[in-house]
Amino acid sequence: MIGNLLQPELKELIRERDFGRLRETLEDFAPVDIAEILTDMEAADKAVLLRVLHKRQAAEVFEYLSMEDQESLLRALGSEEVAKILNELAPDDRTALLEELPAPATQKLLQLLRPEERKVAVGLLGYPKDSVGRRMTPRYVSIQQGWTVAQVLEHLRRVGRDQDTLNQLYVVDDRGCLVARVRLRVLVVAELNTPVVELLEQPVTALNVTDDQETAIEAFQKYDLTVLPVVDSHGCLVGVVTVDDILDVAEREATEDMQRLGGMEALDAPYLSIGLGRMIRKRAGWLALLFLGEMLTATAMGYFEGEIEKAVVLSLFIPLIISSGGNSGSQATSLIIRAMAVKDVSLADWWRVLWRELVAGVALGSVLAGIALIRILAWPTRAKLYGEHYFLIAITVALSLVGVVLFGSIMGAMLPFILRRLSFDPAVSSAPLVATLVDVTGLVIYFSVAYGILRGVLL
Amino acid sequence: MIGNLLQPELKELIRERDFGRLRETLEDFAPVDIAEILTDMEAADKAVLLRVLHKRQAAEVFEYLSMEDQESLLRALGSEEVAKILNELAPDDRTALLEELPAPATQKLLQLLRPEERKVAVGLLGYPKDSVGRRMTPRYVSIQQGWTVAQVLEHLRRVGRDQDTLNQLYVVDDRGCLVARVRLRVLVVAELNTPVVELLEQPVTALNVTDDQETAIEAFQKYDLTVLPVVDSHGCLVGVVTVDDILDVAEREATEDMQRLGGMEALDAPYLSIGLGRMIRKRAGWLALLFLGEMLTATAMGYFEGEIEKAVVLSLFIPLIISSGGNSGSQATSLIIRAMAVKDVSLADWWRVLWRELVAGVALGSVLAGIALIRILAWPTRAKLYGEHYFLIAITVALSLVGVVLFGSIMGAMLPFILRRLSFDPAVSSAPLVATLVDVTGLVIYFSVAYGILRGVLL
Question: Which of A60, A72, B47, B327 is 20 to 30 A away from residue B423, measured at CA?
């Protein structure tokens, strides 16, 4: 809102090249607000605005910009200006930027960093993609066990300004291994002459630098903390991860899972900003694969062509029956994939899930069978629509529905377990994939039931 | 891990009724670890363990327990013990518990609270479900503009211990309206004689107490803060919301969206702990509704029964064609629902989305059409399988695929916009719902194309 009110005024200052007053006006603004103003500006003005800011403020504003704006600004600014901003960026935000860029651009930017910052950046980029190391900052405060509260506060006044978080302070031993922590909030309510050792707590947990970022989401949820320490394989403290980065990771993971559930590759970019060609490619792969699988329905139908010729009435219910299997499978697979993602269900629970889906499948199938029976048997023109054997047709449809819905529920629930057991991502078990598998089986179930009931009558 | 090692020892102490040593052993434990140990214990031991703890520690442990454990413990403990814990609970965690219980139980528990705590609890429960007020705590620190840093720190040492967060301190005017904030981390790195007024910042944003909790998720993501102030309609500060509660909300919202996308009501409970009957009811409603919709396919098929009788070969491709429409619709609707949830796409973007899906639909449909053409025309036994007019059949299938996939993409993408425009939750546009809508239309498209191409030949 501030942005909308001030933007014309700022534009005016840019047009008049009154950079002194521009800098003055912006000095009192929160970085996030400047970022918002900048986002709405024209490309040329963006670079001007960022150039005017003090380097520390420029870096903070930069951290709040979208990846697209960051990239285009890096291209628009001169090397010297880029260097200023990059050197000031928080190490975790810098990693997030560098890991998105193509390798040559990353290399070029790394050259612009001061040697000590470059060492940090290269180190963080060395951790595996999606690992905790990539979201970490090495800027944390460590303190000595022997200090008093007053000494710690004195230490903070000296070194605290450059740290990314002060919420937790850490005590490490000679080898750099994490031994204890103290919370800032405990520190500031304690008397000044209290020895720190009385306030120390065991670190409730530490993340491993190679842990998957999903582990970090869980840990933050479980322990309700705003910052967690990160250790290497020797237990040495190498950095900290803050909750704001984890909130972003949690949202991104949920987005990816939801897109996979819809039956495609995860887009890895906002819907409106991803290139149309790239989006189509991400969707075409799975769509084509599902199509190839679905071709088996044509094969199955070909196998039953004789039956259809004899009793065309059977074909009327094909879409109804196979889609009911697909729908129940979609329910089951979304439930289980999400339950696995939030750790409500683990691999060992497979038989409990199987049991629940067996019961649910029969119950849900019976509900649909009941509706179908009423619909067919109570319809005034039933004999005209479905022929003289409408009663047997109704029984065929009802029994097939129970079978297909039961199969769909079990298939949808078990596929994520099978995929995970084979070390695939269970989220690959998308609703469309389950529907495709169930379609083929659904046809076989339907025509087998029909054959059993209608043999000698219609078939 | 600590839990597994110690559990036998603790059990032993409980069996021996050595409560003194038990309390001593547990004193140094983090509440979250005690909660974990307690979760794995037998029901009777749980109450004993909690009873032994100091009331402050008991309340903290209680906050980390699952809703189920909390409820069963409330039943197992005496009124006096329940009162002790309830009075010590953080107001936001207490709301989370009370809002889950049936109304009579909530009333009974409210009576156990001290008058001042009861006033707080009733006030928080008075805010609408899913509003920011329900996740808020009224325990924050407000300070005076005229103070120095030393005075603020002195104030914190006096009142800070009972607050739920100290990360942000707030300055309010005579009417209680929020005027400024200061971050604890800025405060502790400043010299002691600095006037606070020099460190004040504008509150970047404030949540409204009646805002939806989704608004809070967005705000925390945008501003990267760990705590945000909450104001009433007059701008008066009424409490604060902390990021740990919001991380939980974000996960729960994503779960609900994913379950709706799978075609059912959100479960509102973990998969393995929800009653089987309740889960079946939550799934049966949508499944039955979709089934009623899908019955239209039988009606449509009945309408084309004559065509099928003349050319049974047409029926072979029905599952293939309608499922392709469903799959492309599932992709589009998952993309758009998620993009809306994370605010990548707003209502005003509908025409940009429509345009993208038009292009994507034609492209994706053409890919599938190409595969189908190859499959039919290059198959060695094509004439035997599909009859002498296999070429026309192939053209019919290919054209129908383009039409159906295009329709599926547009339908899947536009339905969330329509639902939101009508003030429904766009997440209701589930993959199965889109598939159902597309199935009926897909049949009409297929038989219309067939009629156009095969009239006079087969039909």
Answer: B327
Across the interface, whether the CB atoms of A323 and B276 are under 8 A apart is answered no
First vs last C-alpha separation in chain B = 72
A6 pLDDT band, cuts 50/70/90, is low
Please report, for chain B, the start and end positions of each structural domain, with discontinuous segments joined by +: 2-126, 142-252, 276-454
Sign of the CA dihedral B83, B87, B90, B92?
Answer: positive
Closest CA relative to residue B337, chosen from B247, B260, B266? B260
Task: For residues B253 and B249, give the distance between their C-alpha atoms in angstroms, rounded to a whole number.
Answer: 6
**Domain A2-126 classification at class level:** mainly alpha
Please enumerate, as own/partner, the contacts of A386-391 that have beta carbons within 8 Å and a separation of 24 or more: A386/A313, A386/A316, A387/A313, A387/A458, A389/A454, A389/A457, A389/A458
Please tell me if residue B370 touches chain A, with a CB cutoff of 8 Å.
Answer: no
Q: Which residue has the tokens 């998620």?
A: B338
Residues 6+ apart with CB under 8 A from A309: B312
Whole-angstrom Cα distance, residue B169 to residue B187? 10
> Residue B11: which of B54, B41, B32, B43 has the closest Cα?
B41
pLDDT of residue A1: 44
User: If DSSP codes are grouped into helix, strand and coil, which group holds residue B201?
Assistant: strand
> Taking 70 as the threshold, does the pLDDT of residue B451 lie above it?
yes
Between CA B33 and CA B14 the distance in angstroms is: 18
Of residues A204, A251, A276, nearest to B32 (C-beta): A204
**Closest B-chain CA to A355:** B276
Rounded to 10 deg, the angle between the B43-52 and B19-27 helix axes is: 70
Residue of A nearest to B432 (CA): A327
- pLDDT of A405 reads 97
How far apart are alpha carbons B307 and B396 in whole angstroms?
14
Q: How confident is the model at residue B408, as a pLDDT?
A: 96
Residue A234 burial by Cβ neighbours in a 10 Å radius (0-12, 13-18, 19+):
exposed
pLDDT in tens, B219-231: 888 888 889 999 9
Q: Which of A92, A117, A121 is nearest to A106 (CA)?
A: A121
A247 with B246: Cβ contact below 8 A: yes
Using CA atoms, how far apart are residues A407 and A438, in angstroms rounded to an integer?
Answer: 7
Contact A410, A402 (CB under 8 A): no
DSSP single-letter state for residue B139: -
Residues in A 99-118 with any Cβ partner in B closer than 8 A = none
pTM attached to this predicted model: 0.83
Distance from CA of A18 to the nearest CA of B (A): 25
B18 phi/psi in degrees, rounded to 5? -90, 70
Q: Which helix (H) or strand (E) holds B385?
A: helix B382-386
Calculate the average pLDDT of chain B.
Answer: 89
Domain A276-454: assigned CATH number = 1.10.357.20
The terminus-to-terminus CA distance of chain A in angstroms comes to 72
Output the DSSP codes for A234-294.
Answer: TSBEEEEEEHHHHHHHHHHHHHHHHHHHTTS---SS-TTTS-HHHHHHHHHHHHHHHHHHH
Q: Given pLDDT bands bounded at 50, 70 and 90, which one contains residue B24?
A: confident
Could you tell me if B204 and A28 are in contact, meaning their C-beta atoms sit under 8 angstroms apart?
no
Fold of B142-252: CBS-domain (3.10.580)
Q: List pLDDT tens digits, range A137-155.
A: 998 898 988 899 999 999 9
A310: nearest CA in chain B?
B309
- Fold agreement between B142-252 and B276-454: no
- Among A161, A185, A301, beta carbon nearest to B315: A301
Range 233-272 of B in CB contact (< 8 A) with A: 243-244, 246-248, 250-251, 254-255, 257-259, 261-264, 267, 270-272
Burial class (CB in 10 A: 0-12, 13-18, 19+), B426: buried
